[in-house]
# Entry
Amino acid sequence: MPEVVEVLVDGGKASAGPPLGPALGPKGVNIMQVVSAINEKTRDFAGMKVPVKVIIDPKTRSFEIEVGTPPATALIKGELKLKSGSGSAAATKVGDLSIETAMKIVRMKGDALMGTGMKEKVKEIVGTCVSMGITVDGGKDPRVVQKAIDAGEYDGKF
# Structure
């Protein structure tokens, strides 16, 4: 029966200290190998807290790393270097997300998004911008961009 250790680490900066080291110590795995594997897998999430599962086989002391992804809002804020979204999304805009950056966030989220293809997943990320007070692709309302994606205006970028 595998043992699972779930921790929240800084992307690309896991260490043998708390919370990881004390949780892994009694499990008999090589902590530095685990830390190195986590840092490799979370490098793209630098500056963000990332949920990580370490699945350990107690017989062989082998391990597997599963990395969760931060919420889309956290990724958008990280890419735009924002501390928070707008307190009044309809009236105050706090940033502008490019389609290319939305595609980067889609790649970071992977299968955690509901869409079946890049186009649908980008629409999900763009939709998140509505409630955050963020414009898309040069100051456009995110809902307008979603309609433009549906109309095929961005097909060349996907």
